[in-house]
Amino acid sequence: MSSLQFLSQRVSFPKVEAPGPSTEQLVKLFEAAGRAPDHMQLKPWRFMVIQGEARAEFGKLMVRAKEATAEIDETKRARLYNNAFRAPTIIIAITVFKPHEKVPEVEQVLSTGAAVQNMLLAAEMMGLGGMWRTGNMMFEPTMREGLAVADNETIAGAIYLGTPVGKRKSIKALDLDKFVSYWRG
């Protein structure tokens, strides 16, 4: 498959299992992230890897973060906790805002997104499945505190990685007429 075919067929894998990425594969993922578009080479991101027993603590943190904003029943509590075990490896992507006169914060957020996309592409190239998940809980003070997210940072999301389960889902091609126009001045 050509690189262009690969890009046009990339999909998220919501269901993954062990094994997750090896140490060597993680290094490759982070190297790929480092090649994202990055105005002035600020590297406005950092990544936190959650694996093994740390997932249990992350599950507890997700429950605490939700409970800080809403009452939840035991079923919801268990579901939130178990979300930490959706994948053998979770990578929390964090935008680190770095003041710069030529690089507004929005560019730094976009650069983090590009870094995450590079990681997802690299993961799939290595035969791994990945899913980028966010949600309001990622922006809650309890979550930020639990993950030691500084005041000049924001969580871009959680990347769940492992061995894909099931068949690759088929996604309909984009109707380019709906998304592309040509400006004529």
TrEMBL record:
For this UniProt entry, the molecular function terms from Gene Ontology, in alphabetical order, are: oxidoreductase activity
How the cofactor is bound: the record states: Binds 1 FMN per subunit.
Where does the secretion signal sit in this chain?
none
Per UniProt, where does FMN bind? R10, V11, S12, R35, H39, W132, R133, T134
Q: Which InterPro entries match?
A: NAD(P)H_nitroreductase (IPR052530), Nitroreductase (IPR029479), Nitroreductase-like (IPR000415), YdjA-like (IPR026021)
Keyword Calcium included in the entry's annotation: no
* Entries under Gene3D superfamilies matching the protein: NADH Oxidase
Give every Nitroreductase domain span.
19-162
Keywords assigned by UniProt, alphabetized? Flavoprotein, FMN, NAD, NADP, Oxidoreductase
Cofactor(s) required for function per UniProt? FMN
Listed EC numbers: 1.-.-.-
Q: Which family does it belong to?
A: Belongs to the nitroreductase family.
What is the name listed in the Swiss-Prot or TrEMBL entry for this protein? Putative NAD(P)H nitroreductase
Supply the source organism for this entry.
Umboniibacter marinipuniceus
